[in-house]
Amino acid sequence: MPHPPIDLPPEDFRALGHRLVDDLADFFAAMPGGKVTPAESPAEVRALLPQGGLPERGAPAGDLLREAVQLVTRHSLHNGHPRFFGYITSSAAPLGALADLLAAAVNPNVGSFSLGPVATEIERQVIRWVGELTGFGADAGGILVSGGNMANFVAFLAARRAAAGGDIRAGGLHAARPGVVYASSETHTWLQKAADLVGHGTAAIRYLPVDAEQRLVPEALDAALAEDVAAGKLPLVVVANAGTVSTGAVDPIVRMSEICKRHRVWLHGDGAYGALGAVLPDAPADLKALHLCDSLAVDPHKWLYVPLEAGCTLVKDQRALRDAFTYRPPYYHFDAVAEETVNLFEHGLQNSRGFRALKVWLALRQMGRQGYAARLAEDCALARRLFEGARAHPELEARSHNLSITTLRYRAAQPDATNERLLTAIQKTGEAYLSNAVIEGAFYLRACVVNFRTQDRDIDALLELIVRLGRELSQA
Ligand SMILES: *Cc1c(COP(=O)(O)O)cnc(C)c1O
Questions:
Q1: Which residue minimizes the CA distance to atom 5 of ligand 1?
Q2: Disulfide engineering: 309 pairs with which of 146, 367, 373, 398, CB 3.0-4.6 Å?
């Protein structure tokens, strides 16, 4: 038997592609009526895959694709389901799936202009538009990456290079004074990974206290900077949360910016989730002040509803990225166009780069600023409905509502243990999916509404489910 060819003749591609698109349209139509998750165990899931080692011989593409559609649509957790409220993972705009197909079919390498000409310019336009949408600035430099962690990581490296000077790139940590990083205790765990992997160690992070609304206390930042500078240390970066991961709290960015300017320290905004909330007319004033940051991380795969993966680093001055990342090896001859455009491999960690910009670019054009403003406002209103519903219910305690994140819990004699069990019970039903937050040491249920399919009735059903299972658990 001959080996199956890796190429698909255009007629086969057409037939398989049409069939796949039909299957996916059915999937989208059926999803809201089904469960959020089949809640299968790892062993159950593994049993669905081909058993044994790597296949020795190939198989026809059409059979494989049909099987993959069944496997993936039936055995996944559907974050596009209207009752998915877990973590900050959005429903994905269907146009993004088609954009990824187009991007993969043409397959430009967006590492350099010459290898991805239109893709490079589309990515640069996306960066400027995300800069506009977030209020960071329409002339922002930046780069698209895989997600919030990487977007923050890239900004961290740019800030560090700016603080420590060019010698740190050859001399490493020996070439600089001991560095310190400042952030509130509510900061996402990317900061630990960054401080660790870049070599400063997590001990270089100075976690600062927050107020009752989980916002960094600016006086503590001011004092910490003064103390460390007096002790001969080198402040590398101050991180401001533009929407904390747990509760959506926005740090006092205006005050933090004044302090950073006075101490001449780079202010980085972690807006992976919240930065896009700046488009809301009633956004907190600090969220409207993202232009005060030197860099900003934004996740298009969160509040732009772009399919995974898409993160974005923005910097005020594009040269900061080149200063942090570029090496020009003799085997690259890309310099000819460098005056008029950029070669994006010089602006980040990746070398070969995919065309993730296309799905973001199409999303921004499909919705426009007004479309996003209206869409995000709906998510916030739904989160508010959940908060008010919990507040009005005698068995529930509403804890916080910021942007589109609400935290609440079922009232019980032992609230932490009961709500931990309640969370697991809710996740197992497949009727809705929640995550949790720990606020001032106490365990809460956390609902993130980053979902264009969620409606009022889904919020009401969620409240009912929490109360029903909460009662069962506290009576057991
Ligand atoms: C989600 C999130 C991150 C991490 O982003 P990923 O896309 O999951 O890598 C970082 N910071 C904040 C505030 C977030 O909400």
A1: 148
A2: 146
Query: Which of 367, 259, 357 shows the shortest CA–CA distance to 303?
Result: 367
List all residues 6 or more positions away from 324 whose beta carbon is below 8 Å from its beta carbon: 157, 158, 160, 161, 162, 169
Instruction: Locate the ligand 1 atom nearest the alpha carbon of residue 301 and give its number.
Output: 7
Tokens of 39: 């809640």
Q: In what order do the strands lie in the sheet with 405-410?
A: 396-402, 405-410, 442-448, 435-439
- What's the pLDDT at 338? 58
**Nearest atom in ligand 1 to 87's CA:** 1
Mutate to test the pocket of ligand 1, among 190, 268, 296 (most ligand atoms within 8 A of CB): 190
Ranges of H-type helices in 231-356: 253-263, 300-303, 319-325
- Ligand 1 midpoint to CA 272 (Å): 5
Query: How far apart, in whole angstroms, are the C-alpha atoms of residue 436 and residue 43?
Result: 25
Residue 336 in this model has a pLDDT that exceeds 90: no
Give, as one character, the DSSP assignment of residue 341. S
417 Cα–ligand 1 center, Å: 27
Minimum-distance ligand 1 atom for the alpha carbon of 271 = 13
Hey, which bits of 123-278 come out as E strands?
A: 141-145, 179-184, 205-208, 234-241, 267-271
Alpha helices in 75-143 (DSSP H): 94-106, 117-134
